[in-house]
Amino acid sequence: MADREYAYYSGCSLEGTAVEYDISVRRVMEALGIRLSEPEDWSCCGSTPAHTVDHLLAAALAARNLTIIEKMGFNTVITPCPSCMMAFKKAHHRMKEDIRFKDEVNSLLDEPYNLNVQSKSALQIIIEDIGLEKVKERVTHVMPDLKVAPYYGCILNRPPEIAQFDDPENPLSMDKIFTAIGVEVCDFAFKVECCGAAYGVPKRDMVNELTYKILSMAVDCGANCVAVACPLCQQNLDLRQQQVNIRKNTSFNIPVLYFSQIMGLAYGYSPEEMVIDKLVVNPDSLISSRITLSQWNEMKAREAEASKAKKKEKKNIEKIEEET
Amino acid sequence: MDAINLTIIDRNFIELVKKESGENPYLCYQCGNCTAGCPYTTFFDYPVSQIMRLLQTGQKDIILNSRAIWVCATCETCTTRCPCQIDVAHIMDTLRIIARRENRVSEKDIKLFYDEFLSSMAKYGRIYELGLLLGYNIKSGHIMTDADLGPKVLTKGKIHFLPKKIKGRDKVSKIFERFKDRTRRDGR
């Protein structure tokens, strides 16, 4: 039974190169009692290319979708892709701040947008509306071998007055979620460094240089995988990892998972259900040691018992030594 | 670096940027925080703090012909860290828009990629990733761009061979048309 219902705008990437993000977010949301409703006949948000042409055009292309969502009767839309989210948030913000801009945007649309829709990331919904207690409650499995570098990317939380969620320099939402589900989080310094975004195609060398720094930092901080919340970050770090290795003469082989895939695995979904096989760098060796929570608790209890017994034995020996 | 003649100030340009961005570039006191955090600064010809200074002194040609305004990815680091609360990334965005309008494009591949993206959008309503890449490769002359990724993407079944056409694609293309009509009307 669903506790809550939201509009859900997946965006173009999640239909193609980031299909595993879409599937894992949908399943995790379902596990957390959230029902998602996809706007009918949604169109591309315009992303970066639109705002290099004109701010008015960019806002209108984004707002067409907000109008559809508004007409569905929703006041919140979950947008897992930060680029779509920022396109929506900026359109909404500028239209709200400037009534003339709003009228101009609406003059480009068939039906006007009336400023009634808030766009939020899946992370924001999980932290603010679901809460960490429930996130933790749902856990059925433990992955003792995972050491995650939480990578948020550049625009998930910035600029702060538009993003309106988490800290712009040291975001913690993913850290908190992983800690709640029992996954080890590494102290990762490049949480918000840019990966090169949409320049993978026209400026590949530049992207490879930027991701080289991020991957190096992840390895240096002791992580054995990177968690992301953005299809472009994932693509640049995972699909292009071999390009980095060739260019920089490195041997990175570090899996890059969507945060939602990690959550799903902790919630008992199979690697197939989390579409793990779509990732280029294979994380199987890290997740094959996954055990159930009860097995984990039994193991921990046995360990505690053993260490207690050891301490007792040590005490006894000391006692005997003292007596003699 | 070339000497810059600071006595030739294009005041109209400064006013245009102020009006279109809604930001006040004179608030910048050249602390350099934006450049210090900019992940792209090694790829820029002029660091972002210098673009701000060039803007304050009305150096229109240098700015609009610069590579920096095209290579900027709007990662928002400068905006987030500016102690004067200037939306620097928005100014960079505005400068790029003006450069595009004046047909001054120092980074042709980046512009071409954006144009292909938008034409895919106007045609189908959503992005047809394979068509976008092929269109870019043919028009840019870099036929083999990302050819190394082809086998990976294809074996993973991550890319669609045919575009997903939405029903309302005419509505999306109408937004582009209305925008074009408007720009023509405004004489831009």
Count of individual helical segments of chain B: 11
Count helical runs of chain A. Answer: 15
Average pLDDT rating of chain A: 96
Write down the domain tally of chain A.
Answer: 2
H/E series of chain B: HHHHHHHHHHH
Q: Could you list the spans of chain A in which at least 5 consecutive residues all have pLDDT below 50? A: none
| Shape estimate of chain A | globular
Helices and strands in order:
The complex is a heterodimer of chains A (324) and B (188).
Chain A: E1 4-8, H1 19-31, E2 34-37, H2 47-51, H3 55-72, E3 76-78, H4 82-97, H5 99-108, E4 118-120, H6 122-130, H7 132-137, E5 141-142, E6 147-150, H8 160-163, H9 173-180, E7 184-185, H10 204-220, E8 225-228, H11 231-239, H12 241-248, E9 256-258, H13 259-266, H14 284-287, E10 291-292, H15 293-323
Parallel strand pairs in A: 1-2, 1-3, 3-4, 6-7, 6-8, 8-9
Antiparallel strand pairs in A: 5-10
Helix pairs in contact in A: 1-13, 3-4, 3-5, 4-5, 10-12
Chain B: H1 11-21, H2 33-37, H3 48-56, H4 60-64, H5 68-71, H6 77-81, H7 88-101, H8 108-124, H9 129-140, H10 150-155, H11 169-185
Helix pairs in contact in B: 1-7, 8-9, 8-11
Give a nutshell description of this structure.
The complex is a heterodimer of chains A (324) and B (188). Chain A has 324 residues and is of the alpha/beta class. Chain A contains 15 helices and ten strands.
